[in-house]
């Protein structure tokens, strides 16, 4: 029944995630854990790949994943659920399982320690709904929501001790091996968790040893401890990351200890308003009040039992002091605290958030509270204990605002082109790199570039190729620092450096074939489809037809295939109509033709158009001026009548058109009026191949936020009559 209770309680805590399954996820980091599980499976099933050393993220650097959080202990459950329900639902199921186990395992352990049923039930719920534990649920931190593992280890050690005391050495050693395997499982979940566990296991183990009366029993217990450590170390060495951890090299960026918030004193009185934010840690009133009440009862009680309550009170204090962080603020006074500062220095900043120690205090603290109130309530009537437990449960729900949800993250759009890229398998397709634009990458210590662009790692699950963008928990900074500002191509593609056309082109010509790069995926929704930067990026790529070509346009994403790709590029011939070929300026697919000089797409009176008048920001001729705009296209050989449907801004304008630098002859008067769309015609003769078409509106006028010259609705290319 306890398991059913925690399942219902977990449903209430996670209702927002459950009701939005398939459309929304928990927090920022969902993409990384989904990719982790995909990567584990991909590496296990692909000869030549290494789970712990690869270049599938932050390409071309080969990164040691020894310190990367793969949360591998969850992989078997994900592998079982993903084929049936998809990766997003599988990860949400893992969050639910962890939430339920956080309550149930504490309950089982508290009962084993002698806590009454009702109080043990509340103790499990206190950890299950603890604000910091909920933070982990609602940020998809699969590696740090596994606090149930710690009472599980305590229960295993308790069983080992019982077998030793019963002189069942063989059974004790078998359980010691299981304990060692459980320790190994904790390590592969997260490297911090074994150190968290030490705050409970070491004092509990010493207490167990101290209570043994016979020397032979102590020796057998010590032997069991050695066996468990040997098993854990053997598994770490042969099955998981120990070898890679030991040979990890490179610079990290742990940051200053002062950057890491601890729990403020106000956080012990009430839960933070934004408990889902790492910068607002809190404990809440329930745990604080429960501990203070238990302390008061013990101080006023005349009977003192040796049931371990004060042991657990003592165990609670070190993690609680660490959770306060590097500085305690009382009114205007900032008091430096040495505890977390020492740990930060000792571990070179591995423990980034001091408040992560708080769940340890809750585990030990609820044992102290439970043992105290169990003894105190033993003489009370059964009904009184039931009503007291119910009242405590209601108080817990109110103090943690149990029905409150954190903001959810909308899952990325499932673009069809990523599936098309993913369908390209075998050699040489498996070697191609996908460059996402904007470029960005991050570690658990620092993010470089737009955080939303780092999440584009999610699409690696669909296309299965190597990529630059992404997140690795701990990676050498030198592997990715160059993209920030030092590298002309990567920094410009991330909008952190001005475009240097010649330098970027030189790098593209090298990397497209040496990496090799298969695709550039330009996310205009992240760049800003209505920004000048969008036209700059698209226009520059369009100007390099021998290197890249637009192959897919889906929503606000333009995908460029490179010259290194064996499937090549289709001709960039405009849409064919009965009248000839036509480019609809302002249509969703006009990006494949645009060069410099265009403003954003605008709907006007049932049509879409773009204004010219944006500045020529790259590669423009020296005599280019505001009001000029460029297009790139291909046409079959022949003679054409080029017709512009255009409207002038402000006053009548004389329009000129040139192709590959040669002026086209007007067929009709080349004057555009400001109050109507005019069809202006020009004669074009081409021998085929790539055309650079320049449209000049004779300068641009100030329109407040921008300069405008011509509104162009369409350009039609009709074959001239023979």
What topology emerges from the helices and strands here?
Elements: H1 2-13, H2 15-19, E1 24-26, H3 30-45, E2 53-54, E3 63-64, H4 75-85, H5 87-112, H6 117-128, H7 131-137, H8 149-165, H9 169-189, H10 193-210, H11 215-238, H12 242-246, H13 285-300, H14 309-323, E4 327-330, E5 333-336, H15 338-346, H16 358-377, H17 382-399, E6 408-410, H18 416-422, E7 433-437, E8 441-443, E9 447-448, H19 451-454, H20 460-463, E10 466-467, E11 470-472, H21 488-493, H22 501-514, E12 517-523, H23 524-527, H24 532-542, E13 548-554, E14 557-562, E15 575-577, E16 580-584, E17 598-604, E18 607-612, E19 628-634, E20 638-648, E21 653-654, E22 656-659, E23 662-663, E24 665-666, E25 671-672, E26 678-686, E27 690-696, E28 701-702, E29 707-708, E30 710-719
Parallel strand pairs: 7-10, 7-12, 8-11
Antiparallel strand pairs: 1-6, 2-3, 4-5, 8-9, 12-14, 13-14, 15-16, 16-30, 17-18, 18-30, 19-27, 20-26, 20-30, 21-25, 22-23, 22-27, 24-26, 28-29
Protein architecture, described:
- This protein is α+β, with helices and mostly antiparallel strands.
- It folds into 4 domains: 295 residues, no CATH class; 103 residues; 147 residues; 145 residues, Galactose-binding domain-like (Jelly Rolls), CATH 2.60.120.
- The protein has 24 helices and 30 strands.
- The strands form 9 sheets. Strands 15, 16, 17, 18, 20, 24, 26 and 30 form an 8-stranded antiparallel beta sheet that branches. The chain has a 5-stranded mixed beta sheet with strand order 10-7-12-14-13. A 4-stranded antiparallel beta sheet has the order 19-27-22-23, with no helix packed on it.
- A hairpin with an 8-residue loop joins strand 2 and strand 3.
- Helix 8 crosses helix 11.
- The longest helix has 26 residues.
- The protein is elongated, with a radius of gyration of 33 Å.
- It starts with a helix and ends with a strand.
- About 1% of the residues have low confidence.
